[in-house]
Amino acid sequence: MKYQRILLKLSGEALMGNQTYGIDPEQINNYAKEIKEVFDTGVEIAIVIGGGNIFRGISGSSKGMDRVQADYMGMLATVINGLALQSALENNDVPTRLQTAIKIEAIAEPFIKRKATRHLEKGRVVIFGSGTGNPFFTTDSAAVLRAIEIEADVILKGTRVDGIYTSDPEKNKEAVKFDTLSFDDVLKKGLKIMDTTAFTLSQENKLPIIVFDMNTKGNLLNVVKGEKIGTRVDL
Q: Which residues of the chain have pLDDT under 70?
């Protein structure tokens, strides 16, 4: 395997499947099976999930809700998704731990870097919920922050498209896909991969990002093997 410790970033919307809201049990079970394939190879896996399938803080604030309150609601949505993924993984015989940046001790451990690393070393998948625990920061920022803290080899951003394009391929059929990009290329071309805070943090810490289609069976395992799938962003 090319990577021995990965941070997988999934969007909340990815869990909806063909629904318009919430969690599709079939979709989340499919993701659990994809993750299990990688887990069975001995690769250490940490996961950060968004909450946009349930509630998006910035959307709530745009409708008049207090931004801080809205962001905390979004953090709780990521915990719901984390619990759902934890259940799906354990139903597929994958041991897990859910850690949250906000203390919710009845259902999850508080995030402690050393404990998270130990879980990974013992062969458990660690799911990080509630973002960074702070308003005004996205789950992309949380993914990069956690990846740096646990010393992950790479961030794998699973999306609905098979990489980074010159424009949105779902809206523009003329869009051209990039196989590789440097961090500077992304900034010069104004490409949207992650929010600026997350992207800059990744660049400063020389942490590569691979954007790939999570919905194609076997893609996650093949990316971890080092196959040229999706788009790799590096120095």
A: none
